[in-house]
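Write out this protein's structure.
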Amino acid sequence: MTFVRFQSPVKYVYHLGSTEILCSNDFVTDLGFILSSDLDPRPHIEHICCKIYKTLGFVLRLCRDFRLGLSYKVLYCALVHPINEYGAVIWDPHELNDSLRLERVQRKFMRYASFRLNIPCESHNYGPVASQLGLVTLAEHRHISGIKFLNS
């Protein structure tokens, strides 16, 4: 696969010995990342959003009878957060729409947690839930991870 940001890249035929290597034009999956030839993170973000929603659905079904807020947070942070964090330094969304798609997952979790734990909050304002559970927005978390990556 050739990674370029040009509209019409120069195609080159690669050989390994006398054997021609086939090229992939759409995307390739490597180490769990979906890499497109134009380096757009959107296919990977779509993939992890689907994966996160499936895992979140499992967590919410599992937590149906829980009453402790710590149990919700532990399961969410152990099963859902790692999917979102894995390699976020590489695919961190640069468009607002992609970032909002990822934040929607955490808002869904907080809406459910506020209902189950009887935490009063206004519609679409999950600040009280986040502060009680000790969670920050996913964008903040990715930003902090990026800073830690650059400092190491």
